[in-house]
Predict the structure.
Amino acid sequence: MKHIGVFYGAKANTTGRIANKIADALKTAAKTQKKSIKVSLIPIEDDWRPDFSDYDLSVLGVSTWFDGELPNYWDEALPALRTLDLSNKSVAIFGLGDQENYPENFVDGIGYLATIFESLGATVTGYTSTEGYTYLRSAAQRGDQFAGLAIDQDSQPEQTDERIESWVATLL
């Protein structure tokens, strides 16, 4: 059985709602694909020193604050996270951003977490196309892809469910 941990900011309401949607979509996709998985939701504020070794895949949720900053719940976890060796571990990142009001740092949080977790030895998986988004710059962009799933609940909320469903199917 594959064990997936979905880490998110519980105090960031939208990130929490998306984390729950992703957890539900993982369970649904696993049934469809006839795979056995266990999904655990972990609020990063409550457990900011998680043992990532407990999970076959860690799904990390992050929003981008202000002008491209990580939210407090990830900033506060960074000193402890930077001490971990995550060699042979996989992470997938989903991030929230607003491409219309913050086009110069759209979903930067994805890029910041990807860089941090890669420096710890983790493999980042779940890249998605930048097609269908309009923005100027993003720290999450790697070529023509984002280093995770970009969600824009402000400008494109009608696309969220489909994007989650497609992304989750690739993770399994």
Summary: The chain has five helices and nine strands. The CA atoms of residues 7 and 96 lie 14 Å apart.
